[in-house]
């Protein structure tokens, strides 16, 4: 994996037009301690219930977590679920001027029953309701206003009937005229309705289904078929824990493995990838880096339960876990360090490597890293520190981060002040009152 900590700073705030089906995700958590006397089923003792924005709403929340501005276009019913969705999204700062209320429409609700962190059943309240022609035209008439100022158009299709062929063709045409990239998370067997999009992002099952090819057909043939149907520039197939495969219209292919610690729940992983893909393409990050960011985000999401939100801070910390050299920060990579340290307790240790890795350095690091809820940030004070010294120090598990250069430390501490500051002078360890004191010793 290329070092992405510098590229992370390119993920600046972008404005995204997000269109798709809105769903209310409901979670009922409890413990199953006994079997019902009425039937051979578990009895769930409810401990708590939660409601979250699902479908395109979950994509919107992930985009917000990635510091993006979101203009959301979708429909809700004139019901309690619709009101809950509207309130939840509004509280997060999502622009809702593209939300339309359909009187005869039932807002979809997915209620997941969870026992001991294991989903035992999902209860869906939904029915397919076509979009009335009058409402469809109202949405189409408003699209030219909604699309103004956006950097990317993202389409999250859950097959609930909102994204009609006419709405899709209109927004794709508007985006292409303005040279705005269009990313589609598709649904169903007919991918021709997305014709003209920049990138289509199906999962493996969706790709085979839409291609019309048998399950034993080569993936390359499936991709070529879909690229022809959609006339898209790229096809990105998500393959869960197998990673991501990207196919281009010129016939080239790239495969990217995903790094996952533990697969807990794949729910919402596709939404996470769509949001990450949207902001990266909006910021014009090259595709190789973009897909690696998507893989990292997906890996984090499927390690968590339910529809997880992945932040820039989460990405930064995962990047730093991938390779020990990512522990070393200069000016280019300070943004990643700043994000990784958000919400963390920090111990800052200033030292010199002029005499190499002495016993005093080892014992001090062991001493300061004894508290697991603290991150140890080592500042090497030498003007030109020895590279071998840096590499060996970075390889130590007890050292979380290393920062070089006084100006870099000043810039970081202006944003994040460490909780405890220490200075090691030879064998003498001193505790300082403030990080600024390090510049005077």
**Terminus-to-terminus distance:** 38 Å
CATH class of the largest domain: Alpha Beta
Total count of domains: 2
CATH superfamily of the largest domain: Ribokinase
Beta content: 25-35%
Shape: globular
Whole-number mean pLDDT: 87
Judging by the overall fold, what is the CATH architecture of the largest domain? 3-Layer(aba) Sandwich
Structural class: alpha/beta
**Within the CATH hierarchy, at the fold level, what is the topology of the largest domain?**
UDP-N-acetylmuramoyl-L-alanine:D-glutamate ligase
Strand order of the largest sheet: 5-4-1-8-9-10-11-12-13
Question: What is the number of beta strands?
Answer: 19
**Biggest pleated-sheet summary:** 9 strands, mixed
Uncertain stretches: none
Q: How many helices does DSSP assign? A: 13
Helix-residue proportion: 25-40%
The radius of gyration is 25 Å
Write a compact overview of the structure shown.
The chain has 441 residues and is of the alpha/beta class. It folds into two domains: 7-322, UDP-N-acetylmuramoyl-L-alanine:D-glutamate ligase; 324-440, 3-Layer(aba) Sandwich (Rossmann fold), CATH 3.40.50. It contains 13 helices and 19 strands.
